[in-house]
Amino acid sequence: MGNKKYTGWRNVWHIYPWRYLLKSIWRPLFLEILCIVVINMSSIPTVDMLGHLCSFVNGGYPSIVGFVLSGYALLIGFSNSELIQKLSKRKNENKPALFQKINATFAMMLLMLVVTLLFSFVVSIVMKANVSGCFFLSGYENAINTATLYLFLFIIFYSLFSLLDVVMNIFNFGQFAFVINDLKNKKVLQNKDSVEGQSDYPCLIQMLIKLCNCIKRL
After folding, report:
1. Radius of gyration of the chain measured on its C-alpha atoms
2. What pLDDT digit, counting tens, does each position of 124-178 carry?
3. Most buried one in 3, 68, 198, 211, CB count within 10 A?
4. Which residues contact 32 (CB under 8 A, 6 or more apart)?
């Protein structure tokens, strides 16, 4: 029961709710509208555009998934470090820790990449199968292809913009590591200075005592 509180997709959606996804739709939507305007002015058939998009996703996205997994592995590799311990502290028990937010962001970005790959795979299979002759699709081929193209464009742009969050997470993780190490180095220097100051104080007293003894002898 305790493990279910911290694992599973339900917990991912709790840390990274739907409203975060909705906040990120504007930039992909803007680029999609620009592409739609260009496509409508072009003479290239919709099916050919779908084929180009499938080739782009099937050829490039596996490498992108590998990049995200590398960053995720880097994050998990520090799971027992002092850095993760500090990032896992929560000021409020009802709110997730910073490490949980970073972890959930990686999970959501991987989910978006996988959804894009699956969508491209399904579209490729349907195009290769040439199912346009089915009786329930007769007369609707162009409308279905256009709707699929628009949806495909949005998914691709959304997943590409999600990579910015991954890059920022990796950068922030490195910055947190730098800040913690910097604070640790400053504490070491302060302790060293305090120890040196304490060691000089007895020497000064001894010098004063010797000076007083010399004066008495005179």
Report:
1. 30
2. 988 887 765 555 566 677 888 889 999 999 999 998 888 887 788 778 777 777 7
3. 68
4. 150, 153, 154, 157
